[in-house]
Amino acid sequence: MTDRQNAISAPHPPRPAFPRLTESKVALIPGILLSILWIAGMSVIDASAYTHTPSLWILSIVTAIAAIAILIGYKVVRMPLLGWLSLAAAAYYLVRALTGFSVIENWSDAGLILGGIIFYIAGLYTGQNKSNRSLMIVLITAVLLNLFYLWLMKNHHPSLHFLGRADVGLSGPNTRNTSLFVYKNFAGGFLALSGSLLVWRTIWQGINHWRDFFTIIIGLAAIVASTYCGTRAIWFMLPLLTGIGWLLWLIIRLYSNRPIGWAILIGVGLIVIVSLVLISDLFFSNNLLKLLTEFGSHGRYYIWDTICHVAPKAPLWGFGPGGAQWEIVPYFSEWRLPNYAHNEYLQMWTDYGIIGLLLMSVLLISHFIQGFRTLANDHLNQAQRIRAAMAIMILVSLSGIAISDFIWHNFSLVAMTAFACGTLATPTPHPPIILFSRKKWAPGSGPSVRPIRAESNCGRVLIFVLALTLITTMMKLSSTLYPAWLAHIEYDTMNTNGATIPERRAFILSVLPNYPDTSITDHYIAMAPGGAQPDWAAYEQGLLTALQGNPRQFFTASILAQLLSKQNRHEEAEIISRRYYPELTPDNKRLSSWISLYALNLQKWGRQEMYNGNPAKALSLMTYGDNIAKKSGYINAAMYRRDARSWTRKGTPELHQFLKSCKTDLNILRAMELTPDDSWQQPLEPGGKKALYQHLQNKAK
């Protein structure tokens, strides 16, 4: 044979096998980016949509790198059935989020959902790793950063620029400085959870090195620091974390064939301590009862009660993002705007409907069961078993605290929950679920996790298409939010440089068309033009823009109606009222006093018609307004204050004099024995409603 023939017939050297993605050098950059994003996300207050802008950029880069690596052959585990179910649910939430009635809430929820999808998949792939070292580095770094910023905020009150945030945002100054999370409940919850994870993780694996003592010290410091965040939530969270940690410790030792004597002994000790605390509190202090009473702070109990009346009225797919807070506004008795439901399950029901609530419940329960079945597998190594236990602790504790707070409206806590669920969804060979027989439940045969293998070509193309869809969605959303994100920083710079109120108002008015946020509108109104000749046109433009972004901003509709009424544009104020005000409300001792404001405009309109020579129309208007006022319990000072947030019940001498004059004028009109002209009660615009609150006319005293 010739050399050429020998070369052809010689066996080719095997092509180098691609390693698993999460343990390769290629994954280093996505891993670092996700770690940075998770930690940086703690400085986000609530769910302001514009703050998703840099997050979406990082998520897009991570998705692109991972998709290309999978496409060229890096090994990943095939998506399990639970993973596909989770992604299908995420697709439902994303579509529903982008089709809601409130623009800002739509964008906010969409950013959170997209982040959750990426972190879920990251957790699914990381669940195949044999070590937890990188996870521990990220967790310890996050805890140390939070402890450092908590110390800064509590002792030196530095500028929020230390947090990478503007001192003054588009919605006003940021003043609630608690830690890197800024908002106290998020900060306290994260520190309590992370500290407990570090402590229990060390106990689960055993103290074998000086690094273990260092980890415990950091964990205990985080737990202690959580008590300085000014939140009551941790006093419910810490006992829950203690109980979960002990239970997981017992299971870990049981399925590792290690003695459980110490676990039982410490469990008995915990029961004794809890019993003594309960007995002592019952007979001496009643602190727990006080804590439960104060637990309803910020109107939680009333919000929940109101939402329970509103949620059943939601369609199967819900009202849309933000529905929980906006649908209850007409029924809310506090004199301020409720922001969230302070219960993620009620919020899910109202916003995403019974479909969304059922999907979330199924996913939480399924991942919880999958986690315990994985934990019970005899062939897990110690790192994998501890990782599963940490994921279970995250899932159970955050699911528990979600009953009383809106923790899943914070990017970092959403990422933490999604990553834990993805970790628990890592495929493990199990027979059908039978909880009553340990041998059938976890027989102890087979590998701890399914072998890592390259996806099929079809699977790789599907993954790439899904990744491309995600990237396109994230980039589209970020391009929409980028102007508001940039404006947030620019506005802070303007304030730092001493911008005048007219300059600030003009700047905010330029932002509102692209980012019609109610908080920005409130800030704009707080700088309302004064003097003899206020700029009504610019004022009105800002209010109309905000209403276009969220037609259920009844506060904004109220302000706009009063604005038009002050300019004697009473028919236009009536049209706005009919378009936006709710027709049926329980009573008039509610947020915004819709009925009182409506009656007030009718009386002003009636007086103007009387002076214009239309006494019959004036009689109809003023009688209608007077009947509503009598039935609803007229609040004399139903006027919106200039700070755009507070209502007042006291009233002004001018308002009291006006109401007195209205009574006199109405008596004069009645004495004239006119036939009332009720033509104004018909629709004033095509497809519009008739006069509101007609049900109060025949029942008035």
The strand line-up of the biggest sheet is 1-2
Helical percentage: 55-70%
Low-confidence stretches: 431-449, 635-650
Biggest beta sheet attributes: 2 strands, antiparallel
**Oligomeric state of the chains in view:** single chain
Distance between the termini: 115 Å
Number of strands: 2
Give the ordered list of helices and strands.
HHHHHHEEHHHHHHHHHHHHHHHHHHHH
Percentage of residues in DSSP E strands: under 5%
> What is the count of DSSP helices, taking H or I runs of 4+ residues?
26
Arithmetic mean pLDDT? 80
What general form does the structure show? elongated
Give your account of this protein's structure.
This protein is mainly α and 701 residues long. The chain has helices at 3-9, 28-40, 52-72, 81-97, 103-126, 133-155, 184-205, 210-226, 234-255, 261-285, 287-294, 300-310, 323-327, 344-375, 382-401, 411-424, 438-441, 457-496, 501-511, 518-526, 536-549, 554-566, 570-580, 594-611, 615-632, 653-671, and strands at residues 168-169, 172-173. Strands 1-2 form a two-stranded antiparallel ribbon. Strand 1 and strand 2 (172-173) form a beta hairpin. The protein is elongated and about 95 Å long. Mean pLDDT is 80; it is low at 431-449 and 635-650.
